[in-house]
Amino acid sequence: MGLREDLAALRTEREAKRNPDWVRIMHRATDDLRDSGIARRVVKPGARAPEFDLLNTQGERRTSRDLLARGPLVVNFYRGVW
């Protein structure tokens, strides 16, 4: 089984344990996002991101330019606790 099939099976398994009303709401929200055209505006893999500077976990300012000078850069977005 491939990744797509594995993910579909996992989604089916998880949704079976949830309130059906919540599942319908989640699917409707996903459909609304797809219909909005948001996927056409997503940065594609391999695309160059705009330069940025952020604070690291120690409160020190880091720039993408400085980090890229040291090699490839991976940016991870953490959504936090909801």
In short:
By secondary structure, this protein is mainly alpha-helical.
Properties at a glance:
elongated, two-stranded antiparallel sheet, 82 residues
Question: How does this structure look, described?
Answer:
This protein has a domain of 39 residues. It is built from three helices and two strands. The protein has 82 residues and is mainly α. The protein has a two-stranded antiparallel sheet with strand order 1-2. 0% of the residues are buried. β1 and β2 form a beta hairpin.
Tally of alpha and pi helices: 3
Q: Order of strands side by side in the largest beta sheet?
A: 1-2
| Largest pleated sheet | 2 strands, antiparallel
The backbone outline, from C-alpha atoms, is elongated
Query: What is the helix content?
Result: 40-55%
User: What's the count of strands?
Assistant: 2
Amount of beta strand = 5-15%
How does the helix and strand content classify structurally?
A: mainly alpha
State Rg: 19 Å
Chain-averaged pLDDT: 90
User: Which consecutive residue ranges, at least 5 long each, have pLDDT under 50?
Assistant: none
How far from one another are the termini?
32 Å
**H/E series:** HHEEH
Question: How does the SSE layout of this entry go?
Answer:
Layout: H1 3-16, H2 20-36, E1 53-55, E2 61-63, H3 64-69
Antiparallel strand pairs: 1-2
